[in-house]
Specification:
206 residues; elongated; single chain; 6-stranded antiparallel beta sheet; 4-stranded antiparallel beta sheet; alpha+beta
Length: 206
């Protein structure tokens, strides 16, 4: 990884892995939504991009919609292995036609995240972020590595850390009125939290 996506000089803090894990959501034509961890190539950042080693990413209600595509969370099932779990759920048949654009299209998820810039393209804006801890709203942040535009990064104060090992939580914020859509979002957050409690060791919960 010695050149950026535009052929310019690329700076990196260390050797970058050829691949990294990404959380993938896939709506199948059968109406099953599948969440799994997949290996994705770690591409060199383009001229105006930086490569993040992702260290934190929140779960928002909008992320739940991307992940589960209006699936019935009472049908959640887990398979796979401890290191590569697979979670599936059924989407009501009446909803699948409205989601036709994403059927059989693997997608990433995670609107926001934070991490350390481990490689940068040749532009001054990208180079200025090398080694910094930054936050970004670039999407697809449920991954180990993510190339994002430098313009979509906000450098955090020196000494900041994005590491929240053992300190995860799910938070829902809304107004005082909780109509049907609000109740559904709260229910989905609760279901995800319950699922996390099953797969995350007690000493890593917060």
């Amino acid at each position: 990884m010695g050149r950026d996506g535009a052929g310019g000089a690329l700076s990196a803090l260390a050797d970058i892995p050829r691949s990294g894990l990404r959380l993938q959501t896939l709506l199948k034509a059968t109406g099953e939504i599948e969440l799994s961890l997949v290996d994705m190539p770690v591409a060199a950042p383009a001229h105006d991009e930086v490569l993040l080693r992702v260290e934190a990413a929140p779960i928002n209600p909008s992320d739940l919609g991307q992940l589960f595509a209006a699936a019935d969370l009472d049908t959640l099932r887990q398979s796979g292995t401890d290191s590569r779990p697979v979670v599936t759920a059924s989407v009501p048949p009446s909803i699948v036609p409205a989601l036709a654009a994403r059927v059989d299209v693997p997608m990433g998820a995670g609107n926001e995240g934070a991490g350390v810039v481990v490689a940068a393209g040749a532009s001054p804006a990208a180079q200025a972020l090398l080694g910094r801890t930054v936050a970004t709203f670039a999407g697809e942040m449920y991954a180990q590595f993510r190339s994002v535009p430098a313009a979509q990064c906000m450098a955090l104060p020196d000494g900041s850390s994005a590491r929240f090992t053992g300190k995860w939580s799910l938070l829902y914020v809304g107004n005082g009125n909780c109509a049907e859509s609000c109740q559904k979002s709260l229910y989905e957050v609760r279901q995800v939290r319950q699922r996390l409690r099953r797969v995350i060791p007690p000493h890593e919960r917060h």
